[in-house]
Amino acid sequence: MILLDGKKISEQLLEEIKVDVEKLKSEGKKAPHLAVILVGNDPASETYVGSKVKTCERVGFKSTLIRFPSTIEESELLKRIEELNNDPDLDGFIVQSPLPKHISDDKVINAISPAKDVDGFHPENLGRVALNMPAFLPATPFGIITLLDRYNIPTVGKHCVVIGRSHIVGLPVSLLMVRNSKPGNCTVTICHSKTVDLKSHTLQADILIVATGQTESVSADMVKEGAVVVDVGISRVPDASKKSGFRLAGDVKFDEVAPKCSYITPVPGGVGPMTIASLLKNTLEGVKRKVN
Ligand code: NAD
After folding, report:
1. In 3-state terms, what secondary structure has residue 178?
2. Same-domain status, 71 and 186
3. Residue tagged active-site, from 20, 91, 117, 119
4. Is residue 263 included in any domain, yes or no?
5. Which of 197, 212, 218, 279 has most ligand 1 atoms within 8 Å of its beta carbon, as the pocket-test mutant?
6. 3 domain-assigned
7. 7 carries an active-site annotation
8. Per-residue pLDDT reduced to its tens digit, 31-69
9. Predicted local confidence at residue 262, as pLDDT
10. Which of 20, 91, 96, 117 is catalytic?
11. Which terminal residue of the chain has fewer beta carbons within 10 Å of its beta carbon, N or C?
12. Nearest to 212 by CA among 268, 178, 176, 252
């Protein structure tokens, strides 16, 4: 069994991004600029946003954190998004989820210009992904295919089973795995909460991608010997032995599943670090598209 070390690969990606940023600057061009909108102060969101801003600094990006109270009116947020769409200094921006209940996710996603949608959530970007056209790939799915690619995992003709059909992970990663690209060209099965006899599907998977948010729900009896397993899930499980009072866990029972796998991602240190690196890669690609 080989660990798909997202931490190591994301470090490589960040170094590559840093070199590209230095090159842009040495040519007299400006550094990529990413903005992050944070509404409210959900603790997990604060952590994610903090590490996005820190990683920007590390690779030489300019970053702007825009904070709003959770009471902000939807119309005011949409107005601010429109301003960011029209800000020539800004190469991309994201709105950290979850948003407060009174704000429509769909309205917010639709308001972001597809040209600055470095999270890859806008319907135009998702449509372009489906059609194998140049697009900002959603950061987590982009991170997953980059991880598979860097480990040279064969995908052509393989059966990939994805559990989860969310618009940010399950659905786009399924599109990336099925399309005529590298990695890609898999036969893809998408499972979800209404799938009957989940195990009968997962047992056929050469590559199993799990993104359900159901902590440690995939057990060894659901996985084929030699499968590649990508665990996207990340949740906090109470653990009195930890200083923080919790440990991080994935959607897969790692200890019993890992011995059956050819490759598997750990949690943490698998898909998570790849997501931030992919977001920065998108922002850089956006800049390159503009300057070339
Ligand atoms: P979501 O809740 O939007 O979607 C979950 C999907 O799983 C749904 O499509 C649902 O149909 C399916 N599902 C739920 N229970 C199921 C079951 N018992 N059997 C089969 N399918 C089932 O979640 P999401 O946003 O896609 O995130 C999934 C997980 O990935 C969460 O743990 C989230 O925290 C994590 N995540 C991690 C990263 C990262 O960077 N590591 C990024 C995004 C999400």
Report:
1. helix
2. no
3. 119
4. yes
5. 212
6. no
7. no
8. 999 999 999 999 889 989 999 999 999 999 999 999 999
9. 98
10. 96
11. C
12. 252
Choose which residue among 48, 189, 193 to substitute to test ligand 1 binding: the one with the highest number of ligand atoms within 8 A of its C-beta: 193
Q: 170-228, pLDDT tens digit by residue?
A: 999 999 999 999 999 999 999 999 999 999 999 999 999 999 999 999 999 999 999 99
> Is 96 a residue of the active site?
yes
In a domain, 5, yes or no: no
Assign residue 77 the CATH number of its domain: 3.40.50.10860
Extract the tokens encoding 129: 């992904």
- In CATH, what number is assigned to the domain containing residue 167? 3.40.50.720
**What range defines the domain where residue 204 resides?**
139-271
Token pair in block for residue 215? 């902590």
266 lines ligand 1 (CB under 6 A): no
The CB of 213 under 6 Å from ligand 1? The reply is yes
Strand ranges for the chain from DSSP E? 2-3, 33-39, 62-68, 92-95, 159-163, 187-191, 207-210, 228-231, 235-238, 246-249, 263-264
Active site residue 260: no
Question: Which residue's CA lies nearest to atom 34 of ligand 1?
Answer: 234
Going by pLDDT thresholds of 50, 70 and 90, the confidence category of residue 286 is confident
